[in-house]
Write a structure and sequence with these properties.
This protein is mainly β and about 375 residues long. Helices cover about 5% and strands about 45% of the residues. Strands 3, 23, 24, 27, 28 and 29 form a six-stranded mixed beta sheet that branches. It has a five-stranded mixed beta sheet with strand order 2-22-21-20-19, with no helix packed on it. It is globular.
Length: about 375
């Protein structure tokens, strides 16, 4: 949950028992976000996804919060949650390579760093300098290459999500834009090469604002992705739309998941978001758009999973198979990290050290925990589609 108390941060925030029918693996399913359901599945993550662990090297120059931005074939990019400008470059095994910081007010520097997108083939990284409404481009040694302006029209404030789409383009989500939420953007000059309009009746914003004599406060739900890479395509989630679409290679939109009732008919709205899509399971949350500022809590959730084999919806609980007992994994912690559809979650070193001493770990996770101390950088859990 995130709470902020300034108008500046509001711009960053602008930033079901259910039953469905699925005739084939490519057909759309429908979710009623208002219903409840009793059937529950207990799943082990490793049964349907591959899991890898990467220990980030810790030394005097490489102490960080382990906020992973991108994972490529050869490098990992990490920053801190705070806006200190530090970018930590690791190799794919977690060995420290270099630390970069180009934060500043100059034309070749970034004021802020909301996110970092990796283009490993071109040895470049794209810094989402959202305060300046720019994308600053550097090579992986930290040398400035060029600056890309973000779109200004249609109520745009800044790009919220950015992924490496192909050799020439980024794919971006423009949350506040009144009509066109998804864009393909040139890596060379920032020009719009393709506008992608997911149909919706009325633009909706998924957050709450309270204005009073004391000031303005805003609250939004846990972070979630509007762009999800999956099996060579891209799943596009616009909260204002009643349908989640798959963007095909020819730029056509194929309906993937539909929700009912229509979001524009609800007050408060219930939004449907995705957490993880695998070959068999689609993990989702139905979230009510309401928040109590006095109690500082809200956005109640219903957790659900669709099983493509059983063609039905369930409640669920997921366990980590690298624990000897039932250690639950919370899907809210998994975040897509590259165009290959891999997701990551942090595992705190102090927690692993405790679990190791208690004999709760096994396999590769146990081996990694044996090398850590409580002050080590977080370990990356990398979740991948089974080969």
């Amino acid at each position: 949950m995130k709470i902020v108390n300034s108008i500046l941060m509001i711009s960053l925030l602008l930033t079901a028992g259910c039953r469905g029918n699925k005739q084939s693996a490519d057909d759309m399913i429908t979710v009623d976000v208002t219903k409840s359901y009793s059937s529950k599945k207990e799943l082990i993550l490793q049964d349907f996804m591959d899991v890898e662990y990467i220990a980030l090297e810790t030394n005097s120059d490489f102490v960080n919060q382990g906020f992973v931005q991108a994972i490529g074939k050869e490098v990992i990019l990490v920053k801190n949650y705070i806006n200190d400008g530090d970018i930590f470059v690791y190799d794919r095994t977690g060995k420290a390579i270099r630390k970069i910081n180009r934060k500043g007010q100059g034309g070749e520097e970034y004021i802020s760093c909301r996110s970092i997108t990796l283009d490993e083939d071109n040895n470049e990284m794209f810094i989402n300098d959202h305060y300046a409404r720019k994308i600053q481009v550097y090579d992986l040694e930290g040398h400035f290459k060029r600056s890309l302006k973000q779109k200004q029209e249609g109520g745009t404030q800044f790009y919220l999500d950015i992924f490496n789409y192909d050799q020439d383009n980024l794919i971006c989500y423009d949350e506040i834009n009144e009509e066109i939420p998804f864009l393909l953007v040139s890596k060379q000059d920032g020009s719009i090469t393709k506008e992608i309009k997911t149909p919706f009746k009325e633009k909706k914003l998924f957050f709450q604002v309270l204005r009073s004599e004391e000031g303005t406060r805003a609250a939004g739900p846990d972070d979630y992705c509007r762009i999800t890479p999956f099996n060579g395509s891209w799943i596009l989630l616009e909260p204002s739309s009643d349908t989640i679409y798959t963007l095909m290679p020819d730029y056509s939109l194929r309906p993937f998941i539909a929700r009912t009732p229509p979001v524009h008919t609800m007050n408060p709205e219930i939004y449907l978001i995705l957490r993880l899509v695998s070959d068999r399971y689609y993990f989702m949350e139905a979230i009510k758009n309401e928040y109590d500022f006095d109690q500082e809590k809200g956005f109640p959730k219903t957790y659900l999973v669709y099983d493509t084999q059983e063609k039905d919806f369930f409640r669920y609980i997921i366990y980590n198979g690298d624990y000897s007992d039932k250690e639950e994994i919370y899907m809210v912690r998994l975040t897509p990290v590259n165009q290959e559809g891999e997701s990551w979650a942090p595992v705190d070193a102090f927690r692993l050290c405790e679990d190791y001493k208690k004999g709760k770990l096994k396999g590769k996770l146990k081996e990694i925990a044996a090398t850590l101390d409580e002050d080590s950088n977080p370990v990356i859990m990398l979740v991948k589609h089974k080969k």
